[in-house]
Known about the structure:
Blueprint (H helix, E strand, L loop, with lengths): L1 H13 L5 H10 L1 H21 L4 E9 L9 H5 L9 H8 L2 H11 L3 E6 L4 E4 L5 E6 L10 E7 L5 E8 L5 E9 L4 E5 L2 E7 L10 E6 L2 H11 E5 L6 E8 L2 H59 L6 H35 L16 H21 L7 H45 L5 H35 L5 E8 L9 H26 L6 H7 L4 E6 L16 H16 L7 E6 L6 H13 L5 E5 L7 H5 L7 H5 L6 H4 E3 L6 E4 L8 H6 L1 H13 L2 E5 L8 H5 L5 E7 L5 H12 L7 E8 L4 H9 L6 H19 L4
Parallel strand pairs: 14-21, 15-19, 15-20, 16-18, 16-19, 20-21
Antiparallel strand pairs: 1-12, 1-13, 2-3, 2-10, 4-9, 5-6, 5-10, 6-7, 8-9, 11-12, 17-18
Helix pairs in contact: 2-24, 3-13, 6-7, 6-8, 8-10, 8-12, 9-11, 9-12, 10-11, 15-16, 15-25, 24-25
Amino acid sequence: MEEDKQKNTEEKNSEESFDVTGFLLECLAHWKWFVACVVVLAAVALFYCFRQTPLYEVTSAVYIQDNKSDNGNVLLESLGLSPYKNNIDNEIEVFRSKNQITAVVEALGLYKSYAWKSFMRTTPLYGNSPVEFALDSIDLRAIQSPLQVELKPLHGGKFHLEAKTHTLDGDKVMLCDQVIDGLPYELPFAGGTVQLRYTGDTIPVLEKTLSMTLSNPRSVSKAITLNLTVAFASKDATILTVIYRTPVVQEGKDFVSTLVDFYNIDAANLKNMGNEKTQEFIDSRLSSISEELAVVEAQVEAYRSHNNLIDISTEAQLYLEQTGYADGQLAELELQKSLVDYVEEFLAVPENEYMPIPVLGIDNEDFAALINEYNKSLQQRERLLLSSSESNPVVAELTRSVKTQRALLLKGIESIRKGVEIKKRDISKQDRRLEDKIKNVPVYERELSDIIRQQRIKENLYIFLLEKREENSLAKSMVVPVARIIDDPDSTNEPVSPKKVLILCAAVLLGLLIPGFVIYLRMVFYPVLKDKKTLERLTSIPILAEISRKPEGKFFVVEKKSVEPIAELFRLVRNNLQFVLTSSDKKVLAVTSSVMHEGKTFIASNMALSFALTGKRVLLMGVDIRRPRLSEKFHIPNREGVTTYLSGVNTDLASLIHPSGVDPNLDVLMAGPIPPNPNELLMSKRFDQMIDYARAHYDYVILDTAPLGMVSDTFLLTRAVDIVVYVARANYTNKAAIEMLNGWIRSKRIAVPTYLILNDVNMKSKAYSYRQYGGGRYGYGYGYANQSREMLPWYKRLFKKKD
């Protein structure tokens, strides 16, 4: 039951999550890394911010007219279809279209950029460059790669001119790299000539290198699009917030204002397209009607003159007035039929598929509203095509709507034509009845009335077209701008990029994260033991003590009357072992470790010396016969020893034991020559006889054995020993070695009591001090105890419950 409990505890400890407390203590111990990293990254961040050209935000509010208040088409709604309304959302894309921005770039000359260039920073110029480009017969849209010119002033009014461009493959092409006497200077480029000349009439003095760039306006517009943001000020508003990022505030103000102007010009041109078509139709019809009216008037004059007609009887006059009213109705119906026929003819022409229908004033309100909505849809489609293609879903949907409206127009035309024909038949019947009444009127009077009737029809049509021409002219002159700036472009004059505070905070944060990440990786990929507390979480094996780091170049640290902390720690080990070795027959200790260089020979030698200083007879045996180390530490030849006895070469064991030369109570038995069959020698009966001899002649026997994790020799020795002391080294022994030790004990491969010693603990390190003394513990020796008392008040508050 106890073994199961121990097993569960070990498994729980081995599967324990990441040691957060240990990680924080490691970070605190290496605080200098964090300070250095923060200082370096903060300096780099400040240098980066100083090198960057600051960007400013120019902000403006633009009001966009909305057509959502327009009445929908009654005919469309009666058929179950909703008329298309102006989509304000699309105006944002029209506003940001590359065609619009390219026009602004060309108008403001933004395809030419100038800047002062220095080692630390590039300062852009706008409108105040001392030198400018003068273009001669260059097609800006044909420029494939920008022209980059650097003008460095020299003594005597000379300049070092460097002009270069790049091919489509990205290779640099040097156009000029020479010293010139002065300006102007002509440079061949893009099939033409670029002239460098002074901006003003006077020759300025250049104190820095002037950088000049000539680019394709289209490519400049693409770059500007990335810095231009257009969005709604609120959800239901038609006010757009325009934000433009630029290194020069005045350039941003000019750009936003000009962009709105070009937007309005484009919108006005689209709106006037229908008015222009209407004007052309009215002018052509006026010319035709004027000729026809002149012919009819000449006929009236000739008829009256020929027949000497002056007065008309009262009765005839009354009938004529009635027929005149009927004729007026017929004329109006004929006019409506003529207008409807024209619309049908206009729609039948393929070239007019997406052209607005002239506004002619058809009396049918539903049909007129349908024409008006059809024209609006065409205008909206044309505007969307400026910034997108016909494959755009919105454009495709709008095209389908236009075709639907076109079909409805054709159906409406047929319906109106039938209605006109019905009305004409009714009025004609009434007119025939009037003609029957005036059949007694002289023939010439009736003939004259026919001619006058034609005259009236032509006059009405002529007057109607004159009125429509005036209305159309008035509509052209009263085009209201679609966009209106309600908040002039302005900037806070505070740069938005680079964000110095944010970059500096990021640098400080990164400076804290990098050392922490390095420490974390070291803890994850190199999981070694740090101190006793780490070891306690991994195993339930008793820990005898922690041994501090030995002085440099000193192997024997246990001396008589020594009060050094490491000597006191070995005395603590001795005292703890005396509590374990409760009877006189328990005196054989095997000292081992997991791998080499963990200090088992150092621990075994000084532990033996510590027992010897108490007056006990102690024998230190070198049983690591594969890699013996005792001979070089005690300066005793390794010609004979354990292997010579076990192999039967020398059976006199007493002659193989040598005084240690360090303490009279300590003897040493060397390992002897390295044998070819170490396992077989350790399994022999002679080994048991050797141990029995040592038990009989010494108070304590300490065996310096081979590492358990490398060879199986030590497992063969456990049959003859009383306890096993397993040595682990701080910051060296892997945590997996302790898990293997737990498995060996559970599987009974080590069947004797086992104890741990943690060697080479750096008790002077801050991490160790924080962990040990922060928990209220005191170190070994007077020096460490004093150090703990000094550090306890502050760190105890921070890490009181961390461990």
